[in-house]
């Protein structure tokens, strides 16, 4: 199984004691190529500041293992996920739960840092 982590140094996930945290989305800054992501030749993705302003207050956000809805890592309403937005982007922190796939992801993040 492979796991794709699209990131730059600023957004690199970190596993800290009891938590997995990082930046889920880095906002675009003109002149900083590390804040835009090439989708294919000639097409880039740019996430603009304000992109989450309306959606986040209206949603119960869930962090998932490999985008799999049967493997939740954390959830806002459960208190196991926290998110906040600043000038850099959308930050997250997930409290580690006692689940095999959570432990696996934590180990992978620790190895990558």
Defining traits:
alpha+beta, about 110 residues, globular, four-stranded antiparallel β-sheet, 8 strands, single chain
Could you explain the architecture of this structure?
The chain is of the alpha+beta class and 113 residues long. It contains 2 helices and 8 strands, in the order E-E-E-E-H-E-E-E-E-H. The chain has a 4-stranded antiparallel sheet. Strands 3-4 form a two-stranded antiparallel sheet. The longest helix has 13 residues, at 100-112. It is globular, with a radius of gyration of 15 Å. It starts with 13 loop residues before the first strand and ends with a helix. The relative contact order is 0.23. The mean pLDDT is 80.
Percentage of helical residues?
A: 10-25%
The biggest beta sheet is recorded as: 4 strands, antiparallel
Spatial order of the strands forming the largest sheet: 1-2-8-7
Order of helices and strands: EEEEHEEEEH
Detail the poorly predicted runs: none
What's the number of helices? 2
* Beta-strand share of residues: 35-45%
Gap between N and C termini, in Å?
Answer: 20 Å
């Amino acid at each position: 199984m492979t796991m794709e982590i699209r990131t730059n140094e600023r957004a690199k996930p970190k596993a800290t004691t009891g938590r997995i945290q990082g930046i889920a989305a880095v906002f675009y800054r003109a002149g900083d190529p590390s804040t835009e992501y090439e989708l294919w030749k000639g097409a880039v993705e740019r996430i603009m500041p304000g992109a989450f302003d309306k959606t986040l207050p209206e949603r119960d956000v869930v962090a998932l293992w490999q985008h799999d809805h049967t493997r939740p890592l954390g959830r806002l309403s459960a208190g196991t996920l926290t998110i906040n937005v600043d000038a850099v982007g959308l930050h997250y922190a997930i409290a580690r739960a006692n689940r095999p796939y959570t432990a696996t992801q934590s180990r992978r993040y620790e190895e990558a840092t």
